[in-house]
Design goal:
Elements (H helix, E strand, L loop, with lengths): L2 H23 L5 E3 L2 E3 L21 H18 L1
Antiparallel strand pairs: 1-2
Length: 78
């Protein structure tokens, strides 16, 4: 290989590395680094979703209905 060929390969490699770095930096996706989930650059523009915490027992209405039914059965059995 001649010096010009080596310079051509070096220039091509440098341009390809720069294009890859620029594409990676501007992609804006979430990244997991050392167990942390880092946000995208657009996280300030995202709409926030809030899911309120639920109670411990998710069937409270059903439990109340069963308790009322048992109480009514006791009254009718007398």
């Amino acid at each position: 290989m001649t010096v010009k060929q080596n310079q051509g390969w070096l220039r091509t490699f440098t341009l390809l590395a720069a294009a890859t770095a620029l594409t990676g930096a501007s992609s804006g996706c979430q990244v997991a680094v050392n167990g942390q989930t880092l946000p995208s650059p657009y996280y300030l523009e995202d709409d926030v979703q809030y899911f309120p915490g639920a109670g411990e027992f998710k069937l409270s209405r059903e439990a109340a209905a069963l308790k009322a039914a048992r109480a009514e059965e006791k009254l009718q059995a007398r």
